[in-house]
Amino acid sequence: MVVKEDVGAAIKAYKGFQKDKKKTELRGGVMEGRALTKAQVEALADLPSKEQLMAQIAGALNALATKIAVGINEVPSSLARGLNAYTEKDQGQSDAA
Question: I need a labelling partner for 61 at 20 to 30 A (CA). Which of 27, 43, 50, 67 fits?
Fold first, then answer.
């Protein structure tokens, strides 16, 4: 079998075929000119697909952007709360005097 794209899906499909027919045996493979053992080929099948990896990266970038936006928004809010607390403290001292 020769596969150029989505190797993991092809290996999973082959393993399903192998389980049903029980006439073939996976012994290894070749990727980019390098020989792979049976364990290495099966490890490729366990990797997420290209689309899944892209979705994970997009989700991580989105989460990072959200955290940055919240952090930037928090600075003026913290400053306003600090000034308000200082003003209340100052007014409390003026009322006591």
Answer: 43
